[in-house]
Amino acid sequence: MEVEVKLRLPNSNAHQRLSTLLSPHHLKTHFQENIFFDTTNSLLSTNLAALRLRFYDLDTRCIISLKAKPMITQGVSIVQEDEEVIDPSIGRACMAHPCKLLLLDSSRIIERVKEEYDIGDDTEMVCLGGFRNVNKNVRNVYEWNGLKLELDETDYDFGTCFEIECESSEPKKAKNLLEEMLRSNGIEYSYSTVSKFAVFRSGKMPQ
Questions:
Q1: Distances (CA, A) of 146 to 24, 66, 169, 174
Q2: What is the pLDDT of residues 54-73, one digit of tens each?
Q3: SS in 3 state form for the chain?
Q4: Is residue 41 within 8 Å of 204, Cβ to Cβ?
Q5: What pLDDT band is residue 136 in, cutting at 50, 70 and 90?
Q6: Which residues form a coiled coil (predicted)?
């Protein structure tokens, strides 16, 4: 189970101000590419599940993940998540030929997908696309007040979203700390209401 605080920033100016404020606490920067898959009859999405490949830093690393039953309330996101590392070259081969996903017999996640959603080896899979990037989809990671913060700039075909996330076992405490920091520094924000995948699938910026 993944529990995260998700706060949306209204524009690049707020994102830059927060980035500057957090700069003394910077740990690392990731460039990400997120690609999603489903069956041709949308078996996963109709069951509130998302199968994703995430490539890090020009194919340095690749993680396959299954997220299911997402809920987000007052800026706190709860989602069932399972993930594992795979060879980036295998991930790229699955992008080119989505049917190869179901042939990854060594993948615990693919076995879960088959069993939980009744998907056979001959089921036709499709690549839905995703948030592809070279210079955008930047995630900056910070260590601040005992919290691991992830400041995202996510570039969709229809616009760019800015968000700060914090995974925590004490989300109420983490949210209070984050909100106080933002308010005291005059940085506008709002509670995120949908996931990045939901934004991508909707084809429009969240309101």
A1: 14, 28, 12, 9
A2: 999 889 999 999 999 999 99
A3: CEEEEEEEECCHHHHHHHHHHHHHHEEEEEEEEEEEEEECCCHHHHCCEEEEEEEECCCCEEEEEEEEEEEEECCEEEEEEEEEEECHHHHHHHHHCHHHHHHCCCCHHHHHHHHHCCCCCCCCEEEEEEECCCCCCEEEEEEECCEEEEEEEEEECCEEEEEEEEECCCHHHHHHHHHHHHHHCCCCCEECCCCHHHHHHHCCCCC
A4: no
A5: low
A6: none
With tokens 């900056």, the residue in question is 140
Nearest-CA neighbor of 149 among 1, 52, 7?
7
Amino acid at 87: D
